[in-house]
Specification:
Helix 2 packs antiparallel against helix 4, helix 3 packs antiparallel against helix 7 and helix 4 runs parallel beside helix 6. This protein folds into 2 domains: about 260 residues, Aldehyde Dehydrogenase, Chain A, domain 1 (3-Layer(aba) Sandwich); about 180 residues, 3-Layer(aba) Sandwich (Aldehyde Dehydrogenase, Chain A, domain 2). The chain is built from 16 helices and 22 strands. Helix content is about 35%, strand content about 20%. Strand 1 and strand 2 form a beta hairpin. The chain is an alpha/beta fold and about 500 residues long. The strands form 6 sheets. It has a 7-stranded mixed beta sheet, with helices on both faces. Its EC number is 1.2.1.27.
């Protein structure tokens, strides 16, 4: 691609400086509502990516020894800078990703919550002490940083997911190399600029851009000690195996097929409102979207009301007032989603609401699909087996709660699920029997606050520790156990040839 285009170029962040890439490979960042080219993003050269890792390695030598209070104060300042720039960050995000301005602010805010949690690192990175475990012997643990860590983030949450990663890694004393999605890197770069303004030293945070080559370099580089990934199952599985074989710690949060189970005793209007928002918000482009509905027993009669409520959602550009459903992120995403809708029709599902080719005045070039609902969906259908990642809801039926639970547990993914009911007994039975990492009871998208950790399971997750909360402190630190004895000056001990400390 020629560099002659008069559009801004996205920079690399290496050693505390925003750097213009020397690459010959570029990709356009496109507004999905208008097809306007907003910027050009470089696919960094191997030399540039290696320089980012080398910078992080050098910075680690001093950053790891930075007092924990100093680290915490940087993130206190950082969270305030994010708050002060919330509107700007949301506007950038909406322009390049497409989600509505309120949803974009929510994207930033959920990341901000993790930054706030990182500011409390003094209470999170605590070891343990056992005094006098033997005669004048104490044992204690230290949670020490690993070194250079790296993150690979997806297009659908270009603010929140980077903020899941580098603040906690850096707060625990590591340095970081971030590779955001090449589809919408601009808001991530603005967050990186604010991080520098907050006082993160040169080399502690570096940002590279690219595709498969950048992913593989992160997996292979001997100086990178841990990798965090959020994205598709295909890429996540590749990252997990390749990086694990290179001796790294790896956590991969991947694909999903999230089910909402509706019992007939649920509050109908509240439930229908929740379902419509969870299925079609963010144009269905979130790994926690409620993309499958299981109507149990008499709740099967709710389908017509669900369809009518979905019809009321406004499809428009994310910048427009009152928009409920914005565009898909790219033309390729539009083709994929509409192709899967067509396959659903061909495979015999009942198209209760067809959202293809909506009329969006003023944004005729946008990648729009309106709310789409399939009824009579069967487990073998493509629209059920594949993660559509669009505003498409599959409706299935079950006679009993146990039948619905069996249906959910038979799906290979285990990211999130929700039950809607007024019965405490049913809710407890559901949460005990369901084999899914994150469970909502009358909560359609049960993503936990940062006091806890994101906990998908089965095919939705590889690695045992979640990407934020207390679990991620363990992920980004190595436990060192110290056993020590101090003798009094006049104490002369005898020779002890056993390993028992007395």
């Amino acid at each position: 691609m020629s560099q002659a285009n008069a559009v801004p170029t996205v920079k690399l962040l290496i050693d505390g400086k925003l750097v213009e890439s020397t690459t010959t490979q570029w990709r356009e960042v496109v507004n999905p509502a208008t097809q306007e080219v907003l910027a050009r993003v470089p696919f960094a050269t191997a030399e540039e990516m290696n320089a980012a890792v080398a910078s992080a390695k050098r910075a680690f030598q001093t950053w790891r020894k930075t007092p924990i209070g100093t680290r915490a104060r940087i993130f206190l300042k950082y969270q305030q800078l994010i708050r002060d720039n919330m509107k700007e960050l949301a506007a950038i995000l909406t322009a390049e990703q497409g989600k509505t301005l309120p949803d974009a602010e929510g994207d930033v805010f959920r990341g901000l919550e993790v930054v706030e949690h990182a500011a409390g690192i003094g209470n999170l990175q605590l070891g343990e002490l056992a005094n006098n475990v033997a005669n004048a012997v104490d044992t204690y643990t230290l949670l020490q940083p690993l070194g250079v860590c790296a993150g690979i983030t997806p297009f659908n949450f270009p603010a929140m997911i980077p903020l899941w990663m580098f603040p906690m890694a850096i707060a625990t004393g590591n340095t970081f190399v971030l590779k955001p999605s090449e589809q919408d890197p601009m808001v991530t770069m603005r967050l990186a600029e604010l991080a520098l303004e907050a006082g993160i030293p040169a080399g502690v945070l570096n940002v590279i851009h690219g595709g498969a080559d950048a992913v593989n370099l992160i997996c292979d580089h001997p100086d990178i000690k841990a990798v965090s990934f959020v994205g598709s199952t295909k890429v996540g599985t590749h990252v997990y195996h390749r990086a694990s074989q290179a001796g790294k710690r790896v956590q991969c949060m991947m694909g999903a097929k999230n089910h909402g189970v509706i019992l007939p005793d649920a509050n109908k209007q509240q439930t229908l409102n929740n379902l419509v928002g969870a299925a079609f918000g963010a144009a269905g482009q979130r790994c926690m979207a409620l993309s499958v509905l299981v109507l149990v027993g008499e709740a099967r009669a709710w389908l017509p009301e669900l369809v009518e409520k979905a019809k009321t959602l406004k499809v428009n550009a994310g910048t427009e007032q009152g928009t409920d459903v914005g565009p898909l992120v790219s033309c390729a995403a539009l083709d994929r989603v509409t192709g899967l809708i067509q396959r659903g029709v061909e495979e015999g599902a009942e198209l209760a609401l067809d959202g293809r080719q909506p009329n969006v005045s003023g944004f005729e070039k946008g990648n729009f699909v309106g709310p789409t609902i399939f009824a009579k969906v069967k487990p073998e259908m493509s629209i059920y087996r594949e993660e559509v990642f669009g505003p498409v809801l599959c409706v299935m039926e079950a006679e009993t709660l146990d039948e619905a639970i069996a249906l959910v547990n038979a799906n290979p993914n285990g990211n999130g699920t929700a039950l809607f009911t007024r019965s405490g007994a049913a809710a407890r039975h559901f949460q005990e029997e369901i084999d899914v990492g994150q469970v909502g009871i009358n909560v359609p998208i049960p993503v936990p606050v940062p006091l806890f950790s994101f906990t998908g399971s089965r095919a939705s997750k590889l690695g045992d520790l979640g990407p934020y909360g207390k679990q991620v402190v363990q992920f980004y630190t190595q436990t060192k156990t110290v056993t020590q004895r101090w003798f009094d000056e006049d104490d002369v001990g005898g020779i002890n040839t056993t390993i028992t400390l007395k």
